[in-house]
Design a protein that fits this description.
By secondary structure, the protein is mainly alpha-helical. It has one domain (3-61). Helices cover 35% and strands 0% of the residues. It contains three helices and no strands.
């Protein structure tokens, strides 16, 4: 990031009353031509857990999460 952004952004967020940068999401009805997404996996369910039939390595092997 440019130095001006590093110094101006905290002041701006303080002025607008935010403790952190806002998050923006954008949804459309059509799938984009390019992009990335996790592969579809076998999701765990209560029934599968009761039967001890969940492949946890498979679940967490394709798990995708972004936190900030």
């Amino acid at each position: 990031m440019e130095p001006v952004v590093n110094t101006a952004l905290p002041e701006f967020l303080n002025i607008v009353g935010l403790d952190e940068e806002p998050l923006g999401l954008h949804y459309v009805n059509e799938k984009p031509e390019s992009g990335s997404a996790p592969k579809t996996g076998d999701l765990p369910t209560v029934e599968k857990e009761r039967q001890n039939a969940i492949d946890w390595q498979g679940v967490f092997g394709s798990f995708s999460c972004i936190m900030g």
